[in-house]
């Protein structure tokens, strides 16, 4: 560990990092805009300048240098002494803030970044209440730079994070700085809109309200109306956690956008939440008897499914019962359902649902010979490996999806429980035809489809944002997550009714279920806890 002195205090810091990063990680709130730990350092905003001791050219003694140094561009070195709490540094910060605010509009009341904006914070701490600017401010119209992103150039502080992201991370280079001096602005190249598959990251890393997500625009202009919950994306098998931002609405909360401060979240995971609000979502327990449908209360589910499955076992045998677990289920939900089915039918067949795959893995930055910094996986489900672990732990008869469909088509199942939960259409013609041949079919899904139409019992499922549990990613890491929003009206969390089927009372608790799973699945005693993100103000 390297030791440096900041404002008279000796701190230990990681080797080879900038002084700015060391200061942030040690608790100093040093203002900065252009610096981001995931991007190359350009030291253009000049807001993080510091004083540093250097050898006096005459006396050779260590003394404060007459000029200021960019802390973002100065690497730590054992024994160096710097300071931020000095009049010279504060004067520089004040002058920089005056420059940033020269042309900035006073539109905080309608800005989506209000309450989370570091331009607001820095203006209060380092700015002046009045401006010496007497000329008219430069005014720029908002720019529609892509299908998902708007650019409010008036608010831009020219940190160039967005430009560097498209050059260094996505490798697509759609954004650039045009003009010079006070006329400089961010823009796209003519005819090349911002449409790469990582574009949502530029909104995350913008320190002010300049780059905005169209989906979230004007949904909640104040921080007090926003709620944040860390969660896992529902699509890729390897992904970092993210924050689901929700806005309060009558009757509860609904997801408004997904954000990730670390560079590394694809648009598919970021914008793939809209099916949560699909008006066609299943929202009530349904039992069909002939041409008539009944809608019982959730308390009756145990009796309904237990009676039907038990009757099927007595009439046709346990080997005629099957369950298809979805790779969109949590490990706890899959374990509870498999355990319940095996207790009723000890020889029941367990299968995994179809694994959606789209094309090939995509690597970024794009371009030959560049080191890979981010990969979008072709596999489009979050928990294939977790479901495989549950099947292995349960033992007995198991099979893959294709074999399940063939067996169902051949009439080998008298009763089956099929779980969906996919964000889009997933039922193949073969599965639809085979499912229609199952006499006692129970379907658990989010959206209506051919399987739910054939089912005798339809159980509405919750989306990934409404559930708790664990996923096992493509690297074998067991990642826990918590529900970010409440289920839609009429729905109950999957873990809640599945744990009730197993005789549990009270509210579903994923941690309690995992403690029961550990006996057969010891790996679940050690969850993956990601290392703390190094301190970075924005």
Q: Sheet bearing the most strands, described? A: 8 strands, mixed
Q: Span from first to last CA?
A: 25 Å
- Determine the strand fraction and express it as a percent band: 15-25%
Helix content: 10-25%
SSE arrangement:
Layout: E1 2-6, E2 9-13, H1 19-25, E3 49-55, E4 62-64, E5 69-70, E6 81-83, H2 87-100, H3 118-126, E7 143-144, E8 149-151, H4 161-168, E9 175-178, E10 185-188, H5 201-205, E11 211-213, E12 226-231, E13 242-249, E14 252-259, H6 267-271, E15 286-289, E16 292-294, H7 301-316, E17 321-325, H8 331-344, E18 349-352, E19 362-364, E20 374-376, H9 384-394, E21 398-399, H10 401-409, E22 415-419, H11 429-435, E23 440-445, H12 450-454, E24 457-460, E25 469-472, E26 478-481, H13 494-501, H14 510-517
Parallel strand pairs: 1-6, 17-18, 17-22, 18-21, 22-23, 23-24
Antiparallel strand pairs: 1-2, 3-4, 3-5, 3-6, 7-8, 8-11, 9-10, 12-13, 13-14, 15-16, 15-24, 19-20, 25-26
Helix pairs in contact: 2-3, 8-9, 8-13, 10-11
What features would you describe in this structure?
The protein has 538 residues and is α+β, with helices and mostly antiparallel strands. The chain is 23% helix and 20% strand. It contains 14 helices and 26 strands. The two termini are 25 Å apart.
List key phrases describing it.
538 residues; alpha+beta; Ubiquitin-like (UB roll); Alpha-Beta Plaits; Rossmann fold; 3 domains; eight-stranded mixed beta sheet; six-stranded mixed beta sheet; 26 strands
Quick rundown:
This protein has helices spanning 19-25, 87-100, 118-126, 161-168, 201-205, 267-271, 301-316, 331-344, 384-394, 401-409, 429-435, 450-454, 494-501, 510-517; strands spanning 2-6, 9-13, 49-55, 62-64, 69-70, 81-83, 143-144, 149-151, 175-178, 185-188, 211-213, 226-231, 242-249, 252-259, 286-289, 292-294, 321-325, 349-352, 362-364, 374-376, 398-399, 415-419, 440-445, 457-460, 469-472, 478-481. By secondary structure, the chain is an alpha+beta fold.
């Amino acid at each position: 560990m390297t030791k440096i002195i900041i404002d008279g205090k000796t701190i230990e810091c990681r080797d080879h990092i900038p002084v700015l990063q060391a200061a942030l990680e040690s608790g100093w709130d040093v203002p900065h805009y252009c610096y981001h730990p995931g991007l190359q350092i350009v030291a253009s905003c000049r807001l993080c300048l510091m004083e540093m001791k250097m050898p006096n050219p005459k006396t050779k003694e260590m003394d404060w240098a007459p000029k200021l140094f960019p802390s973002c561009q100065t690497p730590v070195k054992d024994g160096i002494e710097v300071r931020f709490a000095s009049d010279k540094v504060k004067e520089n910060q004040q002058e920089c803030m005056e420059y940033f605010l020269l042309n900035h509009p006073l539109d905080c009341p309608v800005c989506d970044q209000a309450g989370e904006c570091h331009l607001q914070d820095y203006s209060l701490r380092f700015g002046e209440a009045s401006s010496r600017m007497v000329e008219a401010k430069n005014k720029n119209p908002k720019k529609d730079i892509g299908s998902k992103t708007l650019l409010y150039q008036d608010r831009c502080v020219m940190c160039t994070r967005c430009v560097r992201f498209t050059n260094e991370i996505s490798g697509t280079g759609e954004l650039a700085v045009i003009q010079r001096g006070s006329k400089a602005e961010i823009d796209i190249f003519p005819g090349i809109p911002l449409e790469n598959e990582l574009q949502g990251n530029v909104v995350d890393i913008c320190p002010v309200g300049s780059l905005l997500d169209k989906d979230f625009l004007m949904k909640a202009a104040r921080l007090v109306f926003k709620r944040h919950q860390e969660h896992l994306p529902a699509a890729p098998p390897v992904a970092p956690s993210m924050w689901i931002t929700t806005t309060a609405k009558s009757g509860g909360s609904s997801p408004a956008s997904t954000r990730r401060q670390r560079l590394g979240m694809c648009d598919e995971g970021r914008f793939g939440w809209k099916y949560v609000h699909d008006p066609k979502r299943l929202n009530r327990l349904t039992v069909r008897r002939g041409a008539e449908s009944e809608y019982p209360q959730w308390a009756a589910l145990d009796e309904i499914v237990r009676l039907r499955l038990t009757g099927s076992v007595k009439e046709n045998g346990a080997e005629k019962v099957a369950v298809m677990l979805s790779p969109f289920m949590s490990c706890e939900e899959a374990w509870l359902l498999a355990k319940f089915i095996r207790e009723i039918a000890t020889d029941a067949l367990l299968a995994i649902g179809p694994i959606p795959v789209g094309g090939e893995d995509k690597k970024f930055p794009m371009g030959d010979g560049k080191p890979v910094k981010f990969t979008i996986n072709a596999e489009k489900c979050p928990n294939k490996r977790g479901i495989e672990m549950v099947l292995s732990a349960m033992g007995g008869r198991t099979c893959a999806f294709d074999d399940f469909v063939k067996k169902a088509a051949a009439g080998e199942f008298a009763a089956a429980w099929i779980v969906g939960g996919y964000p889009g259409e997933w039922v193949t013609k073969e599965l639809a035809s085979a499912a229609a041949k199952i006499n006692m079919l129970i379907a658990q899904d989010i959206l209506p489809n051919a399987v739910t139409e054939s089912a005798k019992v339809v159980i509405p499922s919750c989306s990934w944002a409404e559930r708790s549990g664990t996923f096992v990613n493509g690297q074998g890491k067991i990642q826990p997550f918590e529900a970010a929003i409440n289920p839609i009206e009429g729905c109950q969390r999957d873990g809640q009714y599945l744990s009730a089927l197993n005789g549990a009372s009270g509210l579903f608790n994923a941690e309690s279920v995992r403690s029961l799973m550990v006996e057969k699945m010891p790996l679940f005693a050690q969850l993956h806890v990601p290392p703390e993100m190094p301190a970075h103000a924005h």
